[in-house]
Amino acid sequence: MLPQNVKQSADALLEQKPTKLLKQLISELAYLDKDAIELIKKAYAYSSVAHKHQSRKTGEPYIIHPTGVASILAELRLDKESIAAGILHDVLEDTAINEKLLSDEFGEEVLSLVDGVSKLDQIEHSDIKHHQAESFRKMMLAMVKDIRVILIKLADRLHNIQTLHALEKKKQIKIAKETLEIYAPIANRLGIFNIKTSLEESAFKYGYPYRHKILRKSLKRKMGNQKRILKKISSRISKKLNEKNILHAINAREKGLYSIYSKMKRRRLSLDKIIDVYGLRIVVHSTQECYQVLGLVHEAYKPIIGKFKDYIAIPRVNGYQSIHTSLMGPNGTPIEIQIRTEDMDRVAENGIAAHWKYKSEGSNDTAPQIKAREWLANIKEIQGATHPEEFLESIKVDLYPDKIFVFSPDGDIYRLPNNSTCVDFAYAIHTDIGNSCIGAKVDRAQVPLRTVLESGQTVQIKTSRYSSPDPSWLAFITTAKARHNLRAYLKELNVEQTIVLGKRLFNNALDALGKKQRNIKQEQIQNLLERMGFKNMDQLYESIGVGDKNPLLMSQILLGDEQIEKKSTEHKPLLIKGTEGVSITFSKCCLPIPGDSIIGHLSRVKGLVIHRRKCHQLGSFLKESSRWIGVEWSDDISDGLSTEITVHAKHKPGSLAAIAGKLADNGCNVEQVSLTAEYEDETIDILFQIQVSNRKDLADIMRGIKAMGNVEKVSRSLH
User: Fold this and answer.
1) What is the pLDDT of residues 601-629, one digit of tens each?
2) In Å, how far from its chain's centre is CA 586?
3) Neighbours of 708 (CB within 10 A)
């Protein structure tokens, strides 16, 4: 059908009586004025005509899908342009309607939204991942221009995933996992809890059908008793609040299946250990009343130590605000209580869509809207990433909620991903701060820039206008912003500048080892170049300058036996990336294993010594900060490495033998056993040195031992 014919047919359809489907949609749009309704009727007519001969995999007329998307957007109370774009979101890809017709009939604003949601042109790519990443980048950059793009896309994904049963099994799993990996985290990042939960529940059902079935059955068995307890607690709390004349609403809430599964997996807990499966939500009028209610609730029931979180004072990264506390209910049953205001509750459900203003920024923006603007600004900054896959991975870093919060000396709060360093913090403040940082203080103590930060710390960055970024930072920085800005700086350097930078870094590395390049034999230099595959030193310098080669490791290889006593090692396979020809030693103080976050210390005697990033000994090496380098585990590690666990068990005959037997059953090689402590309550601490493949295997072993009847606690040892 030609575009002109689409227009004629759509105009004719507008003259007819509205369909049942359109009537239902209009009934959901009572918050819009008459002109807005007319625009949406027109969009429905054009979409209906354009998709007339198309059907869904379910066999239903295709128009059901765009109308369903519009209905989801109506629940968020979005504006007329968003609703119209939701109805028209597939017409550019799948129908005769072109951009000119769409612009002429609905305006540039609607066209921009539809185009932003549409996929890239169907270009044949040899690399499917590249195409998918490029499509994702296009959508995210369109979102930066107008946040409504992603709201429409989320609604589109939600409606599609609700009818996933019509697709073949392989496609179901693919779409479900993509939803859990990308779209649900985006909804969470924007604070749209309703859509996030709906996406997760449907995707979990299709992506992990067996786990979904088992978990649902287990919860069903648990449900009856919990509801009775919740009703009893609710009644008692409500009575106390009425006595204080606090207007309130108390609702029971149930944690989503996927959220429960994720928590069980993340924290390695059984279902019985998850205390917030069921809970109560108390909604009051003001922030002051929230804290008043908290006191009254703690009077009524004993709070569980360590289970209190004040997201009002310090909101989550998506702007979510509420007080969470866990109480010991009747019969010792733990119950989570959430306390928030009406506005906080509304915002918690709809995130940025709550009172969103599309045209301007105002002082009445909600917390999620403010957080969303910050996130969008960050995306805009990294959009110049060379490869779409790099961009996708950068965004993923920001999508997951494993965050820490640290403070500037002025008291400003900065949220960063776990394992973020001082350099990440410097770039979070400002790109110029990151590019010129030379040192850091954490809680007033001088630390190396590569120091991993923890929540609650105060960080001060020292800068110099004569300083420039160090390519070696790429080995340990975590945030997308830091990584992008560092790469951008290195790319802007011309070859001559890169060589100068690389030479300076290489000479600094030699200085750290007590050597000068002028004293190095030409034979050694030639040997290094041959081993690394370079024709001359300028090529080596350039490689160091762009971050491909580590100057300290290159210095170590150059000096060889002259500087570092090479020792034989049991672990002949390559365990650490990029350390070919380098003597590797694993620290005895923290015994790192694959999966641990690690850092390397260049020793004159032992070569490169690998430590866990949270090793207690790291503080003693701060004076030699130039010798610390970021390192990563190799991808394929088959050999086991030694580590230690401490088992706190009841002092009974056969306890030691039973635990050792359990380790043997797990195929674990026990290298050493020692009794380290005895206590008055007839318990003991037993230290086991064992060989394991990685952190996952160790966690499985520790979980198996902990389940033994005579064992009270199992922990990993740090000297």
Assistant:
1) 777 666 678 888 777 776 655 455 556 66
2) 30
3) 17
